[in-house]
Write a structure and sequence with these properties.
- Helix content is 48%, strand content 11%.
- By secondary structure, it is of the alpha/beta class.
- Strand 5, helix 6 and strand 6 form a beta-alpha-beta unit.
- It is elongated, with a radius of gyration of 29 Å.
């Protein structure tokens, strides 16, 4: 166990969300979380590290099983308050040396505390307080270690106030903390509370909070850069296939179309995998992995309204960017098709028809007929498709940035509209971003990629 960085033992009754709290505060998917009581049977340590340096360690412990029997033993063997901590150690030593002991879980959770760990005691705020918890809270008092209590509203907050009244008699700090939704500021507040409880850790914890703040900013910048790189990669992508003489061209067009689409899907999937790795969510499951119909396929144009701009917006931006003459917007067939998709999804809410009215995989025929032909798909020059890809990427990036590591549910991308995000930018920035996307099919230099990264961060609401 790292003796230089603070160590906290997360303890409590079984199945109260201890492992979820460890997972969120250490930013690790490796912590096992289960609704089945008793999943944690032995103490395990998890470090929160920044650039390879451990900032603090959390010990995930089993739950109390026989706190009343433990308390009874302690009271019988402790002559006075000054001997209480040593009495707890004596209890552990005695039970550990027995061939069989019914106090395995108590030994596992108490030893890290006696070794110097601070105590984070976890309870469920959706269940009523009962006196059965008083024995385990008293045992923790006897260790003499700094301690706080976290009320985890697993099924709601019906009994939070009741718990606060009881816990405040045993703990100096009592906080409500939901590991599934706690943002960074709430996580920092837990650490700050310990710096108030235990002065020797103050400097280390304050330094950790400062480093974490800068670390999060770096993650946001790197995440936005990853999106910018892959967006340009998709927009510049070309696929081609040779058509031999005397060969029917139509037989190869469909194959080329599929190949081209698969390449773009692969690039998008690679981007998502890199973002998962960057934000330490390698095990995160998404709708795309489950192939559910709710998550629109990249080339299902009936679903593009989820990510594209409304028609009025894209026409205005195109005109402002000086590209209106080069845009082909099929208001007829495409608009009607998208309108049907929106109505069937129940998400249009009376809006006008939406963008994405052309086919991104349009095939071009190049080459001299006598020497055979070359069918080419891409690069995509249409502005709408660029916005579709941008919207999808930003939604995924925003989701993974705010997702806690205790949340093991299948990730659901919100039905957001890029128009709403764009409207948060100054008009001049909207036009400049449009111009950049219009030229992206030719590739962007590093300065342009950095500008695109900055706009992506703004669209995510990070600046």
């Amino acid at each position: 166990m790292n003796t230089e960085a603070p160590v906290f033992a997360v303890v409590g009754h079984p199945n109260k969300g201890k492992s979820s709290i460890v997972s969120t505060l250490t930013r690790q998917d490796a912590v096992k979380i289960s609704e089945i009581s008793g999943t944690t049977t032995s103490s395990q340590t998890f470090d929160l590290s920044i650039d390879g340096v451990t900032q603090y360690t959390l010990v995930d412990t089993p739950g109390f099983q026989r706190p009343r029997q433990v308390m009874s033993w302690l009271q019988q063997h402790s002559p006075n308050a000054a001997e209480r901590k040593q009495t707890v150690q004596s209890f552990i030593d005695q039970q550990r040396h027995q061939e069989t002991t019914k106090y395995h879980d108590e030994i596992e959770l108490l030893q890290p505390i006696l070794d110097g760990a601070g105590i984070i005691y976890v309870v469920d705020g959706s269940l009523p307080y009962t006196s059965e918890f008083e024995a385990e809270m008293t045992v923790l008092q006897w260790t003499g270690q700094p301690r706080m209590a976290l009320i985890n509203p697993i099924g709601g907050e019906a009994y939070v106030e009741e718990w606060k009244n009881a816990l405040s008699q045993y703990f100096s700090v009592v906080r409500v903390f939901d590991p599934l939704t706690a943002d960074y500021q709430k996580q920092f507040s837990v650490l700050s509370a310990f710096s108030e409880l235990y002065e020797p850790w103050r400097g280390s914890i304050e330094s950790t909070i400062d480093q974490l703040t800068h670390y999060v900013t770096r993650l946001e910048e790197q995440g936005a850069w990853t999106v910018a790189e892959h967006l340009v990669q998709m927009l510049t992508q070309e696929s081609e296939i040779k058509v031999p003489q005397q060969f029917t061209q139509s037989l190869l067009q469909e194959q080329l179309k599929k190949d081209y689409q698969n390449v773009l899907r692969s690039i998008e999937s690679e981007m998502q995998d890199q973002l998962k790795a960057l934000f330490s969510h390698p095990e995160m499951r998404t709708q795309t992995q489950q192939l559910t119909a709710d998550y629109p396929d990249l080339f299902d144009d009936s679903q593009w309204y989820l990510y594209g701009l409304d028609r009025r917006k894209i026409i205005a931006l195109s005109a402002s960017a000086g590209a209106a003459a080069g845009m082909v917007i099929d208001i007829g067939v495409g608009g009607a098709s998208l309108m049907a998709g929106a109505v069937s999804g129940g998400l249009l809410s009376g809006l006008a028809s939406v963008a994405a009215t052309w086919k991104p995989e349009k095939l071009n025929i190049k080459g001299v007929p006598l020497a055979g032909k070359t069918l080419t798909a891409g690069p995509v020059k249409e502005l709408t498709f660029a916005f579709v890809l941008l919207g999808r990427a930003i939604d995924f990036l925003s989701l993974i940035r705010t997702r806690t590591h205790a949340d093991r549910s299948v990730a659901q991308l919100a039905d957001s509209r890029l128009t709403d995000r764009l409207d948060q930018l100054p008009k001049s920035d909207q036009v400049q971003l449009t111009r950049l996307l219009l030229k992206a099919h030719k590739g962007l230099n590093e300065k342009e990629l950095l500008r695109l990264r900055d706009w992506i961060m703004q669209l995510c609401g990070w600046t």
